[in-house]
Amino acid sequence: GCPRRLLLVSNSTMHGGGYLGHCQQHIQSFLGEKVKRVLFVPYALHDRDAYARTAREKFESLGYGLDSIHESCDPVEAVRKSEAIFIGGGNTFRLLKALYDNSLIQEIRKRVLEDGIPYMGSSAGTNVATISINTTNDMPIVYPPSLQALGLVPFNINPHYMDPDVKSTHMGETREERIRQYHEEPNTPPVLGLREGAMLLVEGDKATLQGVTGARLFLRGKKPTEHEPGTDFSFLLTDSN
Hey, which family's this protein in (predicted)? Predict the structure, then answer.
């Protein structure tokens, strides 16, 4: 089986809480005691120094050292030496372009899928863990060479998934409609809509929904289905959906 270990979080901050506060126990459980230092990838935000300070403060409070990849003179070597990788949120297009620009796509894939080091993503960092960034909510402010992402799982995720407000008079597209439009294209993979407060834990060939909110699953040609925390999503890890 695949040795991958992933914690894919929908959002970095919950209303009324601090950075990663809503999932800090999940992080500690996920990283455990073997990991001493985490390699942070702040490419999704413009001010990488400030972003790294925020992440470092949080991870140090949880007992882990943190090195930011943007401070390394050799990002590829930093990935090769890393014990665990955390890619933070921000703009998904900016993030993916930087991963390509720094030749990190294959390196991160190898470390996670072959070497089995833990990978954690939040928001944009969760988007790039999937097949592609086709289902991100972000504006294409820069142009990555491809929309293909790390492919650590064989499906797509829509972080910050929002249900339609039944009281709203807004006539624009709902998130569900946008995902349905994506599935109108041939050969499009499943899309897991992760609400804020939800996260997906992947251990080898097992995937489990965690957190305090549910998720909505979209399969091409089928009606969306609703799922509660604790749902076993392992079937999404097989390529035959």
Answer: Belongs to the peptidase S51 family.
